[in-house]
Amino acid sequence: MMNILLLTFVKNNNQITSAQGLSRSVTSLFIACNKLYTLSDFVAMSKLQELNICGNFLSKCLVDELKYLSGIDTLRHLWISVPQESPVEQHEMQLVRQVAFFLVPQLETLDKEKIEAESKVHSANEYGKADVKAKAQIVHKYFADLANQKQ
Amino acid sequence: MQNQQLASISALTNFPHIQELYAQENELQNLYATPDLTRLDVSHNQVLDCLYFMNPVYPSNLLVANYAFNAIRKLHPEYTRNYKYLQVLNLEGNQLSSLSGIEELVQLHELNVNNNQLVRLNGLESLNALQVVHAV
């Protein structure tokens, strides 16, 4: 019990749950490893150029949240993934990245990697003109298949 | 004056024209200022109050203040309201649970509040010059 208390005390990072209250003038926001549960508040952040949200969402949830970044025309650099532990998690995150190319095509880099036009085209072809909801469903189906395979 | 185990810098008041003060990694709890101070680095000390100075001086032209890794729990508007020109404030590694009081720093451009105990970012709404926020 003492150990648990000690750990809680030492681990002293923020646990911010939303972007509410943030000035709209902000261009760079580094908010990794918090407790964001939605990106819906980011719709108003119309000057954002850099955003780091690593370690806030499970990859499954991130698929549904990326749509809120679609309208931020100024956004160029996005960080979403922490180094993944298992190959399955890596694969899941790779899929989420493809979704990000598609939903946030204005990005220049994703997780520090430069996005080639090729990737954007590939992503667009892969998912066609599917709307956001349909696209999320495709990914969810993938996750469900993956879970079935594991059993 | 880095890493000198200094417990006080009250002698600073004898040098009123100092513009930059670098006193990181000491044991300072109380700070003293000069009227012309524009840059202040007191990171890695034991400071309890942000932008509070023991001597009756307001370095109102302060532009950059680094209070990282101290023991600051809250910001007091009666102190912050004296620094309308502050552009960069580093509060990483303190014990802030709220940013209330920060709204007085109307020219703030860059803020670092990494490794605090924040659950929300309220207080930043009205800071129209704010561009960079670190809140890991």
Report on this model:
The complex is a heterodimer of chains A (151) and B (136). Chain A is of the alpha/beta class. Helices cover 42% and strands 9% of the residues of chain A. Chain A has helices at residues 2-10, 59-65, 87-103, 117-127, 132-150, and strands at 28-30, 50-52, 77-79, 109-110, 113-114. Chain A starts with a helix and ends with a helix. Chain B is mostly beta strands. A six-stranded parallel beta sheet of chain B has the order 1-2-3-4-5-6, with no helix packed on it. Chain B is globular. The mean pLDDT of chain B is 94.
* Rg of chain A, Cα atoms, Å: 17 Å
Principal-axis shape of chain B: globular
Helical segment count of chain B? 1
In total, the number of strands of chain A is 5
For the largest beta-sheet of chain B, the strand count, sense and barrel status come to: 6 strands, parallel
Could you tell me the strand content of chain A as a percent range? 5-15%
In whole angstroms, how far apart are the ends of chain B? Answer: 29 Å
- The quaternary state of the protein chains shown equals heterodimer
Quick description:
Chain A is an alpha/beta fold and 151 residues long. In chain A, 42% of the residues lie in helices and 9% in strands. In chain A, helix 2 packs parallel to helix 3 (87-103) and helix 3 (87-103) crosses helix 4 (117-127).
SSE inventory with pairings:
The complex is a heterodimer of chains A (151) and B (136).
Chain A: H1 2-10, E1 28-30, E2 50-52, H2 59-65, E3 77-79, H3 87-103, E4 109-110, E5 113-114, H4 117-127, H5 132-150
Parallel strand pairs in A: 1-2, 2-3, 3-4
Antiparallel strand pairs in A: 4-5
Helix pairs in contact in A: 2-3, 3-4, 3-5
Chain B: E1 20-22, E2 39-41, E3 64-66, H1 77-80, E4 88-90, E5 110-112, E6 132-134
Parallel strand pairs in B: 1-2, 2-3, 3-4, 4-5, 5-6
